Amino acid sequence: MRIGIAGIVHETNTFAMERNDRMDCVSIQRGQDVITGAHPKNFIGGFLEGAARDDVELVPGVNIHFKHGGIIGKQVYEECRREIIDAFAAMGDLDGVYFGFHGAMVGETPYGDAEGEIVRAARDLLGADLPMVATYDFHSLMSKWENENCVPFPNNTNPHIDGYERGLEAADCLLQMLDGKLKPVTRRLFVPIIGPNIGQSTWSQIPEQEQQLLLFQLNEQRTALEKVPGVVNITILGGYGYSDAPDAGMSIVATTDGDAALAARMCAELGQALWDQRDVLMKVRPILSIDDGVQEAMVRDEKPVMLVDLGDDPGSACPADSPAVLEALIRLGAKDCALTIRDAEVVDAGLQAGVGATLSMQVGGKIDGRFYQPLQATGTIRSIDDGNYMILGPTHGGWGRDVNPDAFREANIGPRVVVRYGDKIDVIFSRNRTGKDRDFFKSAGIILEEKQILVVKSNQAHRASFDPVVASTIELSSPGVSTVDYASLPYKYLRRPMWPMDPDMTWSAGDDGAFDL
Fold it and tell me: Among 57, 58, 314, 507, which one is least packed by beta carbons within 10 Å?
């Protein structure tokens, strides 16, 4: 049996400035590099392990990633789709297909359902009956058509630590389909809730806190429902509020062995439970203003305190160049702090000046001027390094809660310059990427234990790495493209009404047409 493999991964913030309008924004692995380049503990790695059987030949096609977090331009999208379909066409006869998707990719009109259009093109080439499975992120925006034409296996966790397990599960399903033992049918229930991401946590390093999380509780219910005879998989999806698309809200996706009515009942039970308790999503963690959060962190006895810059999260396609928190730290007299800002001009100036030099220039705010402006600041260059370091985990993206040597990997984000401002406020400047794992900070010379305040640009992804080592966390209502104020974003395609943007709306899983969206 021959299984074709292809991947395309992008979480699109349609409001972000840095778009993918040229093919030099695209990174493509082809052929055997798709397999050799796969991390053993992510989605594709799990699938490869799960599908390793003597009678199975895995045929790699392409795996595509993008440089920027903004929308995929029409011509770029069409070229990437062509790459995938041409790869399938060159594979010869296939018995099945595996897609490694993210699920929140949005292309320029008319390609709002970007992954769904790729599945549709693959179906046109390979036939309506060829078994197809796919793995997805927790924040995916799968359309109804896509769900019913490609069996989905999304993350159950947020932060996402189960990519490997979902890859294994997708492989097992596909092999059972090929062996004639399983005929999956999938149904999706769209639940009109948008964010907030920090309210959609499914786990915590602190057991007492974890048990209070709504999605942890609903995941316990989901796990029990998956044991019902005939159920293959159920997932509670968080959706992605920064992708302006009709499927951007939350949803329940259920797959059964040939029983559409059972899949619909599973969706309705979980979907109604989610809707009935939706207010809890807004209460998981309080959000403070920047000044209030900094002042609170300064006086806490136990350290380090983590401040989360919610509005400038690079994981949500923000430029990660906001100096808003740095400005507050300096102005309010904070000390013993560490944070990171993307600013190529500061890196270049630091490389030229050298360690020990005084650097006086504008920092941050040079990519997207809609939310904040550059900060004029004077500091001393503390260190310079090449940006090569090891991610030892645990960290976001399918690595599990614990340190696992099998998941170690090298990272290279390019030259970094650490500049010290005020009273030991250390800022790690990089050209293109900022880090949200503790290894990024440690490898730049930051000793976490001696800092009172650590600042990370993130929503959820930092938690797998930092929750075990910080004393407490404070979320900040900071400016940027990943704002928690969804109503302030200029949506064109988002389905309305949508809670909590429309707080007085009513909805029920039993509404007519609920499964026809």
Answer: 57
Helix (H) or strand (E) holding 264: helix 260-276
Residues belonging to the chain: 517
Residue 404: what pLDDT? 67
Residue 72 is classified by DSSP as B
Cβ(515)–Cβ(188) under 8 Å?
Answer: yes
**Peptide bond between residue 497 and the one before it cis (omega within 30 degrees of 0):** yes
Residues 281 and 202 sit within 8 Å (Cβ to Cβ): no
Q: Indicate the pTM of the whole model.
A: 0.86
* Residue range 307-345, pLDDT digits in tens: 999 999 998 889 999 999 999 999 999 999 999 999 999
Distance between start and end Cα atoms, the chain = 35
Write out the DSSP string of 304-332.
PEEEEEGGG-GGGT--S---HHHHHHHHT
Q: Is 512 exposed, middle or buried (0-12, 13-18, 19+ CB in 10 A)?
A: exposed
Q: Which residue has the tokens 């199975």?
A: 56
Instruction: For residues 426 and 64, give the distance between their C-alpha atoms in angstroms, rounded to a whole number.
Output: 35
Cβ burial 27-57 (10 Å sphere, 16+ → b, else e) = ebbeeeebbeebbbbbbbbbbbebbeeeebe
Q: Measuring CA to CA, which residue among 13, 77, 8 is closest to residue 481?
A: 13
Burial class (CB in 10 A: 0-12, 13-18, 19+), 469: middle
Tokens 């062996």 -> residue: 179
Spatial separation of the C-alpha atoms in residues 36 and 38, rounded to whole Å: 6
